[in-house]
Design goal:
- By secondary structure, the chain is of the alpha+beta class.
- About 30% of the residues lie in helices and about 20% in strands.
- The protein has a 7-stranded mixed barrel. It has a 6-stranded antiparallel β-sheet with strand order 13-1-17-16-14-15, with helices on one face.
- A hairpin with a 4-residue loop joins strand 16 and strand 17.
- Helix 5 runs antiparallel to helix 6 and helix 7 crosses helix 10.
- The radius of gyration is 23 Å and the shape is globular.
- The termini are close together.
């Protein structure tokens, strides 16, 4: 047997970063019942945010009453406004509740803001829910979600999905003791191409959400500089110094599988970048996942599109294309695709979970008269949405999409080769110290047998030492 011991701080960092904490659901994100959210707002103020100030982001004062079997609370002086981009033109609006817009420090079950999404173009009202469940199951940063009934001035506005907002609280929960870094929300046009050294060139598409007073874009600009300008010979190592490549490859693999065309890789839109203070590296996170699982506006079958050539051919997406041009990164991308398809993408289990949730929200959806105002969705369309295409922009039911995407992706996958990170120095036949081995993990953080052969593993010893080992029979 040959044993290789690797001095690999990069590998160790990869494993730690892959272990994103998934916080438990709280009373703000009930999984077994629908809470009711009542908003009381002055009629003239409501008319203003729905009319003349719709596109301005104007926030008015309101009172929120959150009612469920486990929590019944009234909070005065909250901010209330419409939210979204193209969805602002919809009849079934989405809304934001800002707990400390008018009262500094005010929170609801630890939350500063609440996003209530109308899902106006999804007859199932379940695509965002399904996407976030898969992100969470894949060990990726994901918003917690729940369903609520929304009432405004005692008028039922329909079934809404409550989607956790990405802010400092979100970061603290996913990255414990490492959540106070800079967070950028990336809007349409954020293709990560080079725009120069001035922060002002980036501020329209990459909006700083935390530490706003410092307004520091240095790390973001440096990351984009490395991404676009580092020579090919040194690119693989340089990009790993400034960016959590492993977490991105897993994240983008899942986005491609769920058909998220409205994210970075296809539509240069809807994602966040976060700089971890502990190592200064940028982390990629998904956002706004309703245009998935067969929602299409381009005439493209996303369930069949090749996973290795996802981006539009005539538009720059350097973070996707340049990484996949590196054999090691492409191999790791293949690993994550296969791992998700094998260990997360269980169509039978997902079908059961979706059917259970659909039954739970059925009454609220059927009573929702707003769901049909934009595209004419009916109660029967809601009932059929898991298994049937509605037509037009809804080209597939969610479950058939899950089946088709899994089959097509598996046919497209290259063979995983287990290539070694080119930036890791390797020394052959170095003896391990005498300390007792406690456990071993693979490069995605899952525990594996200590004596497992023919795989890269990290062994943790009783004295606290961690070493990367590759043993060949």
């Amino acid at each position: 047997m040959t044993r290789f011991v690797l001095f690999c701080s990069l590998f160790y960092a990869v494993v730690v970063r892959a272990q994103v904490v998934q916080p438990p659901y709280t009373n703000a994100f009930l999984q077994n019942e629908l809470a009711s959210v009542y908003i009381d707002v002055a009629p003239d103020s409501l008319a203003l945010i729905l009319g003349d100030s719709l596109y301005s982001g104007y926030t008015t004062m309101a009172t929120m009453h959150y009612q469920s079997s486990v929590l019944d609370v009234v909070i005065d002086s909250v901010g209330f406004r419409c939210r979204g981009n193209t969805s602002l033109a919809s009849q079934k609006k989405s809304f934001k509740i800002d707990l400390n817009q008018f009262v500094s420090g005010q929170k609801f079950v630890g939350l500063k803001e609440i996003n209530l999404n109308g899902e106006h173009n999804d007859p199932s009202i379940m695509r965002t829910y399904t996407a976030d469940q898969l992100l969470r199951a894949s060990g990726l940063p994901a918003s917690r979600t729940s369903y609520v009934r929304l009432y405004i001035n005692n008028e039922y506005k329909g079934l809404y999905i409550n989607v956790e907002y990405l802010d400092g609280n979100f970061l603290d929960l996913r990255f414990p003791n490492d959540g106070n870094g800079n967070l950028w929300k990336c809007y349409y046009g954020a293709d990560l191409t080079w725009l120069g050294t001035s922060a002002s060139s980036y501020q329209n598409n990459y909006i700083l959400q935390t530490n706003e007073s410092a307004n520091d874009y240095t790390a973001l600009i440096h990351f984009i500089d490395v991404l676009n300008h580092e020579p090919t010979a040194t690119f693989a190592c340089a990009i790993q110094e400034v960016f959590d490549v492993e977490l991105f490859l897993r994240n983008i693999a899942l986005e491609i599988l769920i058909g998220q065309w409205d994210g970075y890789a296809y539509n240069k839109n809807n994602y966040y970048l976060y700089q971890r203070p502990s190592d200064g590296k940028i982390v990629f996170m998904s956002y706004d996942l309703d245009n998935t699982f067969g929602i299409d506006w381009f005439g493209i079958n996303w369930a069949l599109r090749n996973v290795y050539s996802w981006s539009p051919s005539n538009s720059a997406r350097p973070l996707y294309t340049k990484l996949l041009a590196v054999p090691y990164f492409r191999d790791r991308f293949t690993y994550h695709l296969n791992d998700i398809l094998t260990n997360v993408w269980n169509v039978s289990a997902l079908s059961t979970q979706l059917s259970t949730m659909q039954s739970q929200i059925l009454a609220a959806a059927q009573e929702d008269t707003y769901k049909g105002l934009d595209y004419g969705f009916t109660n029967q369309d809601f009932s059929n949405a898991l298994n049937q295409a509605w037509g037009a922009h809804v080209t597939s039911g969610i479950i058939p999409y899950l089946q088709t995407r899994k089959a097509s992706a598996q046919l497209q996958l290259s063979a995983y080769q287990g290539l070694l990170n080119p930036c890791v120095a390797m020394v052959e036949n170095i003896e391990m110290d005498g300390s007792e081995a406690v456990f071993a993990t693979d490069l995605s953080g899952r525990q594996i047998p200590i004596n497992q052969k023919n795989t890269m593993k990290l062994i943790t010893y009783k004295n606290g030492t961690i070493k990367c080992v590759y043993e060949i029979d």
